[in-house]
Amino acid sequence: MKHYIGAGNPMRAQFEPKAAYKAEHFAWSYEAGVGTITLNRPDRKNPLTFDSYGELRDLFRALVYATDVKTIVVTGAGGNFCSGGDVHEIIGPLTGMRMPELLEFTRMTGDLVKAMRACPQPIVGAIDGVCAGAGAMIALACDLRYGSPATRTAFLFTRVGLAGADMGACALLPRVIGQGRASELLFTGRAMTAQEGHSWGFFNALHESDALLEAATKVARDLAEGPTFAHGMTKTMLSQEWSMTIDQAIEAEAQAQAICMQTEDFKRAYEAFAAKRKPVFGGD
């Protein structure tokens, strides 16, 4: 969950702001509590490299401590989201690696998904055009996903002779769209249309391409203005309760909600309701 660390807290120095972060292998921007990651190699449909994988992983890990960033938008440049691992910069070199090196790579890619899921801020995906391979997994790791009629999402690992079991696909995808649909996409590698993705629950909504990023950013901005400590708790429980029994989940939620009831945001919401005005949350 996301913890608020006040300016007077002696631990404050350990919680580094990320508004001024300078990205090397993608674009990063920040405004009003919303950090935006843009995969920006549009000439190649924004493929990933070894370096961009590592930097994305490290940024999401660091965002755990960034009290200024309330929500995150992930998108791609040039009308596409991400075409997956770069064929020449990743796929080619992998064919010459030995097992220990390959395992280091596959663990690194999985660590990106782990970092996104452990990141307490809600992550909103604005997913246009091509969304394939590892790009589809980045989209899947987002908390909310918005697409366009042009979006085509393909978990195409089998097309390159690999298992559909990649970066957590066999665990995450069935939970989002169901076991049968996930099995079809992972066995065949075919592209899921935007309409299928919307009707199956992969996309929360579809917007025209020229309005997609704005719509996703508005969702992120609205979340950033909400009770961000409580949002972090919601994300934590959504993840942890996968491995709980119903009784365990109910008890865990009782404890989680009791913690949230100690926050100033809970008091602010009550006071605003009593005064018949909109609450202004502080994240603490």
UniProtKB/TrEMBL annotation:
Organism: Variovorax guangxiensis
Record's protein name: Enoyl-CoA hydratase/carnithine racemase
Gene Ontology molecular function, alphabetical: catalytic activity
InterPro entries: ClpP/crotonase-like_dom_sf, Enoyl-CoA_hyd/isom_CS, Enoyl-CoA_hydra/iso, Enoyl-CoA_hydra_C
Family annotation (Gene3D superfamilies): 2-enoyl-CoA Hydratase, Chain A, domain 1, Lyase 2-enoyl-coa Hydratase, Chain A, domain 2
Family: Belongs to the enoyl-CoA hydratase/isomerase family.
